[in-house]
Amino acid sequence: MVAYDEDLADRIRDLITGESDLTERKMFGGLAFLIGGNMAVAASGQGGLLVRVDPAGSDELVATTSARPMEMRGRSMRGWLRVASEDVRTKTQLAKWVTLGTTYARSLPQKG
Questions:
Q1: DSSP state of 84
Q2: Cα–Cα distances in Å, from 104 out to 23, 58, 77, 93?
Q3: Helices 91-107 and 6-16, interaxial angle, to 10°?
Q4: Distance CA 85, CA 69 (A)
C-alpha cells in the first residue's frame, strides 16, 4: 500500500518537470519535491498537499484560502501549509499551490 496519492504526485511532477535542481524524496509520509535541496511541495501521506511558503505570508494564506497550518507534535508550523485534496482537483488549483511552493524554495539558499 502506498502512503500518498500517486496521481497527485504525478500531477505535481507534470507541473514542475522543467525546474532546475529538482529532486524527489520520501518525507513526512509522502513524496516531497525539492528545489536546491529545499522542500517546495509534497503529495502528503495524510492526503492532499503539503506546501512550503514564505512564513511572512503564511497567516494571510490561511485567512484567505482553505489551507491550514501544518501541525507537528501539536505545534503549528508557520510557512508549512496543508491543502486538502478537494482544493487541488483542477490543474489551475494545483498550479497555484505548486507555484507558491516552488517560488519560495527557489528563494532559499541551496542546501549542500
A1: -
A2: 16, 11, 16, 18
A3: 60
A4: 15
Q: Read off the DSSP letter of residue 46.
A: T
pTM of the entire predicted model: 0.92
Q: pLDDT by residue (tens digit) across 47-71?
A: 999 999 999 999 999 999 999 999 8
Question: Cα(56)–Cα(92) distance, rounded to whole angstroms?
Answer: 24
Which amino acid is present at 99? T
Question: C-alpha angle with apex 78: 57 to 72, nearest 5 degrees?
Answer: 155
Could you give the domains of the chain?
Answer: 6-107 (3.90.1150.30)
Burial of residue 101, with CB atoms counted within 10 A of its CB: 0-12 exposed, 13-18 middle, 19 or more buried: buried
